[in-house]
Automatic annotation (TrEMBL):
<feature type="domain" description="Cobalamin-independent methionine synthase MetE N-terminal">
    <location>
        <begin position="3"/>
        <end position="316"/>
    </location>
</feature>
<keyword id="KW-0808">Transferase</keyword>
<keyword id="KW-0862">Zinc</keyword>
<keyword id="KW-0486">Methionine biosynthesis</keyword>
<dbReference type="InterPro" id="IPR013215">
    <property type="entry name" value="Cbl-indep_Met_Synth_N"/>
</dbReference>
<dbReference type="Pfam" id="PF01717">
    <property type="entry name" value="Meth_synt_2"/>
</dbReference>
<keyword id="KW-0028">Amino-acid biosynthesis</keyword>
<comment type="pathway">
    <text>Amino-acid biosynthesis; L-methionine biosynthesis via de novo pathway; L-methionine from L-homocysteine (MetE route): step 1/1.</text>
</comment>
<comment type="function">
    <text>Catalyzes the transfer of a methyl group from 5-methyltetrahydrofolate to homocysteine resulting in methionine formation.</text>
</comment>
<feature type="domain" description="Cobalamin-independent methionine synthase MetE C-terminal/archaeal">
    <location>
        <begin position="432"/>
        <end position="645"/>
    </location>
</feature>
<keyword id="KW-0489">Methyltransferase</keyword>
<keyword id="KW-0479">Metal-binding</keyword>
<dbReference type="GO" id="GO:0009086">
    <property type="term" value="P:methionine biosynthetic process"/>
</dbReference>
<dbReference type="Pfam" id="PF08267">
    <property type="entry name" value="Meth_synt_1"/>
</dbReference>
<dbReference type="InterPro" id="IPR038071">
    <property type="entry name" value="UROD/MetE-like_sf"/>
</dbReference>
<protein>
    <recommendedName>
        <fullName>5-methyltetrahydropteroyltriglutamate--homocysteine S-methyltransferase</fullName>
        <ecNumber>2.1.1.14</ecNumber>
    </recommendedName>
</protein>
<comment type="similarity">
    <text>Belongs to the vitamin-B12 independent methionine synthase family.</text>
</comment>
Length: 661
């Protein structure tokens, strides 16, 4: 039985690529130095997968910045402002598109579907002169082959590339990006021809937009594109990879009807209903790449459950046509659990990072082929049982509090106008009061103090003194500027989610659990492994300290439950909204303690409200409902004179949320 990995993290187990990129950008190292680090990372990844027994190993999933930007480079779709005059695209043009330069801004960056990864949005129009301008896909296939590893080259599919693009500046917003399909397919044909000449036997096209709400015209574009490519793909096995959600019935019919396609990759983790489409009908003689190992979270796979699913699929598609795979690229998870030296053994046994997921994929493939590693499966079953029964996971008091939530818990007792009148009498603010969003810049000295306190190199008294001095500077500056509602600047905080997670039960933190957000930017999401509660006040001391320094209102600053949820690795043993409600109850406790400490203006930051929005419009209402309820829970118990405001950062749909409060 065969195994496959959709894609793999690029940064390296200890962020080697991040540091190499930043050194190159700072002109501290050469292009050759950067290329050497990149080549070493690619070689290590390919060797790791080969040693693990993976049959279908991807290439061209490595990127110096972003895979969509790589596709833009391949197609020569460089916006004119970067002054590119043709030829192979080099680092100067590539990184100017990604980051801008002294003369021109970068291209737009936006979310990659509903993940926390960001991609560079192509800027297209009728006048773009496409040309084959980056041979990266072919070069990396040859590179792997020279190392003795035959890989599956991966390309962003032509239709998804266009659907993820935007009209360039000056192009009508109504311009049909799909009308460019005949212009980009010749470039894809050149790449395919070179890959065939280099000896490739498989090619993977990532077409994740197939999981979106697509109309008939958009679905027809897939049919037209692959019909056009059919003769060029002759002699190759062609995998169309989808991920992140279920396919609609129409999208599934379109997918399995594509010309010249050998195999279909389906996300069976987030695409919980897709398996029903497979059971209802799967084309005879085609391969199913079954994404049963979660590429977006860090929990160990339930191998017994996945094996059962695979056995059901095997009966439908045939033993020799089923390939075990990840649900999506492992780009969205941390790299290697081996590097986590501070996680305790129990929690560690519940986890699997990218390196461990590769092993899980191969173990499932071997088990399906009758070569089950009984010891490996037994250890996995024991870890699954441990997680289900651990008292660290379940807190009865939290469960009861969440279950006891009634409709009245989601609304304050009096209406908005009455509360505003009471708050105005209490706060005596001008008609248009001024404030700031919250955090002030953190100096190297401030970060040093915080780092040394965490490492026990300075005393708590000295730490508190240093932070108080910083708060006093911030307060004095705001008073000098005549700001009406002040903030304390948050000098004690490292990260808006990590700071709270470190003080809440049910959270764990990694040392090297870094995940790429964009370019060289990496984040280290907290792990929510159990029921969430607040053992003690988290911000009251610092907010009270700041309030004592001024007669003006001082805002209490909290991160909201939806943002904490969306920027964490979330437990997968209960619905996300239940975990969100638990976090909301913990924040509610903090809000009420701030009020008791005479903090009468409280800001709850929800920077990630939009980021959790599901891919399907039909699911938006449910998400918005529990997101709104979570915010209401946080402040439903305060007095009318206390003002609690939400700061969503994203104005794209904040009005639809705020109108509910």
């Amino acid at each position: 039985m065969a195994s496959h990995i959709v894609g793999y993290p690029r940064m390296g187990p200890k962020r080697e690529l991040k540091f190499a990129l930043e050194s190159f950008w700072d002109k501290k190292s050469s292009a050759e130095d950067l290329q050497k680090v990149a080549a070493d990372l690619r070689s290590a990844i390919w060797k790791q997968m080969a040693d693990a027994g993976i049959k279908y190993i991807p290439s061209n999933t490595f990127s110096y910045y972003d895979q969509v930007l790589d596709a833009t480079s391949m197609l020569g779709a460089v916006p004119p402002r970067y002054g590119w005059n043709g030829g192979e695209i080099r680092f100067d043009t590539y990184f100017s598109m990604a980051r801008g330069n002294a003369s021109v801004p970068a291209m737009e960056m936006t979310k990659w579907f509903d993940t926390n990864y960001h991609f560079i949005v192509p800027e297209l129009g009728p006048d773009v002169n496409f040309s084959y301008a980056s041979h990266k896909a072919v070069d990396e296939y040859k590179e792997a082959k020279s190392l003795g590893v035959d890989t599956v080259p991966v390309l962003v599919g032509p239709v998804s590339y266009l659907l993820l693009s935007k009209p360039a500046k000056g192009v009508e917003k109504t311009f049909s990006l799909l009308s460019l399909l005949p212009k980009i397919l010749p470039i894809y044909k050149e790449v395919i021809s070179e890959l065939k000449a280099a000896g490739a036997s498989w090619i993977q096209f990532d077409e994740p937009t197939l999981v979106l709400d697509l109309d008939f015209h958009q679905l027809q574009a897939f049919t037209a594109a692959y019909a056009d490519l059919e003769s060029d793909l002759s002699g190759l096995n062609v995998l169309i990879e989808t991920y992140f959600a279920d396919l609609t019935t129409e999208a599934y019919k379109t997918l399995v009807g594509l010309k010249g396609v050998t195999a279909y990759g389906l996300d069976l983790v987030r695409g919980t209903q897709t398996i029903d489409l497979v059971k209802a009908g799967f084309p005879e003689g085609k391969y199913l790449f079954a994404g049963v190992v979660d590429g977006r979270n860090i929990w160990a796979n339930d191998l017994a459950s996945s094996l059962s699913t695979l056995q059901q699929l095997e009966a439908i598609v045939g033993k020799d046509k089923l390939v075990v795979s990840t649900s999506c690229s492992l780009l969205h998870t941390a790299v290697d659990l081996v590097n986590e030296t501070k996680l305790d053994d129990e929690i560690k046994s519940w986890l699997a990072f990218a390196a461990q997921k590769v092993v899980e994929v191969n173990a499932l493939a071997k088990a399906l082929a009758g070569l089950k590693d009984e010891a490996f499966f037994a250890a996995n079953a024991a870890a699954q049982a441990s997680r289900k029964s651990s008292p660290r996971v379940t807190n009865e008091a939290v469960q009861k509090a969440a279950a006891a939530l009634k409709g009245s818990d989601h609304r304050r007792a009096t209406n908005v106008s009455a509360r505003l009148d009471a708050q105005q009498k209490k706060l005596n603010l001008p008609v248009l009061p001024t404030t700031t969003i919250g955090s002030f810049p953190q100096t190297l000295e401030l970060r040093r103090v915080r780092r040394e306190f965490k490492a026990n190199k300075i005393s708590e008294d000295n730490y508190i003194k240093a932070i108080k001095e910083e708060i006093k500077k911030v307060v004095d500056l705001q008073e000098e500027l005549d700001i009406d509602v002040l903030v304390h600047g948050e000098p004690e905080r490292n990260d808006m989610v990590e700071y709270f997670g470190e003080q809440l039960s049910g959270f764990a933190f990694t040392v090297n659990g870094w995940v790429q957000s964009y370019g060289s930017r990496c984040v280290k999401p907290p792990i929510i492994y159990g029921d969430v509660s607040r053992p003690k006040p988290m911000t009251v001391f610092w907010s009270s300290t700041a309030q004592s320094m001024t007669q003006r209102p001082m805002k209490g600053m909290l991160t909201g439950p939806v943002t904490i949820l969306n920027w964490s690795f979330v437990r997968n043993d209960q619905p996300r909204f239940e975990t969100c409600y638990q976090i909301a109850l913990a924040i509610k406790d903090e809000v009420e303690d701030l009020e008791k400490a005479s903090i009468n203006v409280i800001q709850i930051d929800e920077a990630a409200l939009r980021e959790g929005l599901p891919l399907r419009k039909s699911e938006h209402a449910f998400y918005l409902k529990w997101a709104v309820h979570s915010f209401r829970i946080t402040n439903c118990g305060v007095q009318d004179t206390t003002q609690v405001c939400i700061s969503p950062y994203s104005f794209h749909f904040s009005y639809s949320l705020l109108s509910h409060h």
